[in-house]
């Protein structure tokens, strides 16, 4: 076999995956793998020292990402990826810390941590894969489930208002907020690249198909049908007012980069403030000499 | 185990008049703790306040988290980031931490948690003393696991045992608890902080072999695996799931058997090296009073009175509560009439003493729900009954 052919046979993102853990557990038609691919592509294109990247996940389908990516990776408890990442980043500020988890993990059980990390402008990137339901446990209603969608704990349709995660992140002070679907592969990649290059709390929401549960219960067809829905109903609107980007059941999905601003991170604020207040007695922390 | 001298930056050498809560913060700083994540809760808040006030002059981070769940989880993250980390809490906050205490155990993460106990259950007695979390610390998180818990009886011991807690946490890669109480936490006494070069600090068991051979959960002779930190290029994985030596999830009964036994064994098999207690007049004793924390100081009065009345009373003060000194209790049970176990709960450690005595000597409690310390006369009365 010629060398060129061998190169062809390699998975192009093999360097970023724990190949000894493949095949993964995700269902056919699931969008999480697509987001992982975009993440790997973004890493490939980034100029980061990849040994200094850490990935933290919570629990759930997307919670399994930490187990498949070849970085220092932590599979924490349900909802707690963000405080775990907070500790990791503050203990070792030279790390680039990425939280990769699902909507149930980040906006449901971990909602409190999400808003506070955004408020503090903790220097982490949060990638939230939003499939509108708790999938690992068999398709229960979530904090992100659109009104009327049917799930096993909303067997007659959901009557609770869902979160608009982009608005929530924006309102809490996130410095970068974007939303895409797993159809927008290049956009997701570019967004992750941009967010990695930023300092501060960045949030990227990616809407993905859950074929096995959400789509089946709501008779929406297979993965391709959902991608077709994204294709038909996504509307790109960079800089959109996040108050206007709610998602209705099978309705329009406003995508784009909604927020991109700069403000000092938690550690920068801490160092600046304490330096100013305490003068030379203050011992700066996590600052490169 | 690599021992070094304490970093003088964190050591406030001298004689101080401190309460137990403050002494815990000073102990942490002296031990090299540079990361504290906490949430205010009476009667433990002073430790967080002290740390927040001191750390800017030492170099490190204090962060007030949104709740105790976030605090303990941030500690785990910080420890994997390479820092010695600690938090402090009390009853309700301790309950909130339970799930992630399990995560710390499962990931074999060194960290220190102080619990300044108050009366429970629920909100209970926020400002008043209790010792009701002594079983929760060992059994409160789900599944079988082992941790280490220490119980100081004075502000001086709060300082000393916090350093010891960090040393044990690093040695065994396990969460270590300082199970103090509101009385000791708020009691002001003289605390002597030695010069940094007289404080021995255990370094983390860092892995130093070739990168490609590193296995995060392969144990060494002492049953403790070597550790690395994020950012060192090992690209390791760790999880709260049952895992193999690589740290990879392994969802089957064999892996579970290996994983759980390992977590238990590294503490139980090293227990003789971990356990510390203090005995007094134990030879020829007919009755042995077993106590810990503030209750051991209250018991002193009762023991003195009992000795005046001619009763042969010995005392055993638990410094390490978990792992429990079961061998010692078993040996004593063979030669004494009875144990007397006063504590500010309805018999949590008494039950453990009874288990270890195995019917050879009764373990008589002096139950008290908390809110105040025992009347020494109640302990005395029980000693007299036990001696009969």
Write the layout of secondary structure elements.
The complex is a heterodimer of chains A (289) and B (388).
Chain A (H helix, E strand, L loop, with lengths): L2 H7 L22 H14 L7 E5 L7 H4 L3 E4 L5 H11 L4 E7 H7 L1 H10 L3 E7 L2 E2 L5 E2 L23 H7 L4 E6 L3 H12 L5 E6 L3 H7 L5 H11 E3 L16 E8 L5 H13 L11
Parallel strand pairs in A: 1-2, 1-3, 3-4, 4-8, 7-8, 9-10
Antiparallel strand pairs in A: 5-6, 7-10
Chain B lengths: L2 E3 L8 E6 H12 L1 E6 L6 H10 L6 E4 L3 H13 L3 E6 L1 H17 L3 E9 L5 E5 L6 H4 L8 E3 L4 H18 L2 E7 H5 L1 E6 L6 E3 L34 E3 L13 H16 L2 H4 L2 E4 L6 E5 L2 H15 L4 E6 L1 E3 L3 H8 L4 E5 L5 H10 L5 E4 L9 H12 L1
Parallel strand pairs in B: 3-4, 3-5, 5-6, 6-9, 8-9, 14-15, 14-17, 17-18
Antiparallel strand pairs in B: 1-11, 2-10, 6-7, 8-16, 13-15
Helix pairs in contact in B: 1-2, 1-6, 3-4, 10-13, 11-12
Query: Mind telling me the CATH class of chain A?
Result: Alpha Beta
Q: What's the main sheet of chain A like? A: 8 strands, mixed
Low-pLDDT stretches of chain B: none
Query: Could you spell the SSE succession of chain A in H and E letters?
Result: HHEHEHEHHEEEHEHEHHEEH
Q: What would CATH call the architecture of the largest domain in chain B?
A: 3-Layer(aba) Sandwich
CATH architecture of chain A: 3-Layer(aba) Sandwich
Helix content of chain A: 25-40%
Approximate strand percentage of chain A: 15-25%
Ends apart, CA distance between termini of chain B: 49 Å
- Please provide the count of β strands of chain A: 10
Output the radius of gyration of chain A.
Answer: 19 Å
CATH class of the largest domain in chain B: Alpha Beta
The largest interface is: A-B, 45 and 47 residues
Please report the number of helical segments of chain A. 11
Shape, per Cα inertia axes of chain B: globular
């Amino acid at each position: 076999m010629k060398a060129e052919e061998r190169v062809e046979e390699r998975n192009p993102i093999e360097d970023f995956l724990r190949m000894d853990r493949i095949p993964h557990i995700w269902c056919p038609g699931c969008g999480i793998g697509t987001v992982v691919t975009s993440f790997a592509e973004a890493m490939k294109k980034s100029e980061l020292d990849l040994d200094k990247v850490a990935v933290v996940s919570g629990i759930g389908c997307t919670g399994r990402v930490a187990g498949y990516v070849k970085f220092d990776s932590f599979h924490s408890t349900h909802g707690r990826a963000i405080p775990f990442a907070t500790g990791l980043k503050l203990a070792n500020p030279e790390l680039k810390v990425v939280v990769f988890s699902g909507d149930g993990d980040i906006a449901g059980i971990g909602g409190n941590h999400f808003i506070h990390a955004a408020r503090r402008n903790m220097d982490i990137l949060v990638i939230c894969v939003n499939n509108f339901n708790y999938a690992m446990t068999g398709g229960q209603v979530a904090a992100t489930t659109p009104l009327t969608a049917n799930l096993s704990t909303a067997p007659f349709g959901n009557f609770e208002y869902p979160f608009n995660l982009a608005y929530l992140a924006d309102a809490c002070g996130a410095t970068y907020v974007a939303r895409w679907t797993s159809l927008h592969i290049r956009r997701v990649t570019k967004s992750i690249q941009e967010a990695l290059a930023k300092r501060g709390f960045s949030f990227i929401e990616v809407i993905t198909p859950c074929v096995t549960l959400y789509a089946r219960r709501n008779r929406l067809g297979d993965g391709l049908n959902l991608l077709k829905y994204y294709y038909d109903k996504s509307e790109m609107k960079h800089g959109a007012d996040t108050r206007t980007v709610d998602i209705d059941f099978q309705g329009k999905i406003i995508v784009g980069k909604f927020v991109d601003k700069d403000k000092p991170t938690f550690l920068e604020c801490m160092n600046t403030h304490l330096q100013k207040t305490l003068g030379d007695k203050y011992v700066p922390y996590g600052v490169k000499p | 185990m690599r021992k070094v001298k304490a970093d003088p930056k964190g050591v406030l050498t001298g004689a101080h008049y401190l309460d137990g809560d403050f002494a815990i913060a000073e102990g942490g700083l002296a031990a090299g703790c540079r990361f504290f994540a906490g949430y205010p809760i009476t009667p433990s808040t002073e430790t967080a306040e002290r740390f927040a006030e001191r750390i800017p002059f030492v170099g490190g981070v204090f962060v007030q988290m949104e709740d105790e769940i976030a605090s303990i989880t941030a500690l785990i993250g910080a420890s994997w980031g390479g820092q010695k980390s600690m938090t402090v809490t009390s009853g309700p906050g301790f309950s909130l931490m339970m799930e992630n205490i399990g995560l710390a155990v499962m990931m074999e993460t060194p960290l220190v948690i102080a619990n300044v106990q108050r009366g429970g259950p629920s909100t209970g007695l926020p400002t008043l003393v209790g010792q009701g979390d002594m079983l929760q610390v060992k059994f409160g998180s789900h599944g079988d696991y082992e941790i280490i818990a220490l119980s100081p009886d004075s502000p001086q011991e709060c300082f000393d045992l916090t350093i010891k807690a960090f040393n044990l946490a690093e040695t065994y890669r396990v969460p270590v608890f300082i199970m103090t109480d509101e009385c000791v936490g708020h009691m002001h006494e003289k605390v002597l902080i030695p010069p940094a070069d007289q404080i021995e600090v255990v370094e983390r068991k860092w892995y130093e072999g070739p990168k490609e051979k590193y296995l995060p959960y392969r144990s060494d002779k002492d049953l403790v695996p070597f550790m690395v930190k994020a950012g060192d290029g090992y690209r390791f994985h760790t999880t709260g799931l049952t895992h193999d030596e690589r740290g990879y999830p392994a969802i089957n009964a064999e892996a579970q058997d290996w994983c759980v036994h390992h977590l238990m064994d590294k503490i139980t098999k090293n227990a003789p090296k971990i356990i510390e207690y203090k005995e007094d007049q134990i030879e020829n004793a007919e009755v042995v009073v077993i106590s810990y924390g503030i209750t051991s100081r209250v018991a002193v009065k009762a023991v003195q009175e009992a000795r005046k009345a001619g009763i042969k009373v010995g005392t055993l003060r638990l410094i390490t509560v978990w792992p429990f000194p079961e061998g010692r209790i078993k040996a004593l049970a063979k030669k004494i009439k009875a144990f007397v176990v006063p504590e500010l709960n309805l018999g949590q450690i008494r039950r453990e003493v009874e288990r270890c005595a195995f019917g050879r000597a009764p373990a008589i409690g002096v139950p008290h729900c908390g809110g105040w310390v025992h009347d020494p006369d109640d302990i005395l009365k029980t000693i007299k009954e036990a001696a009969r």
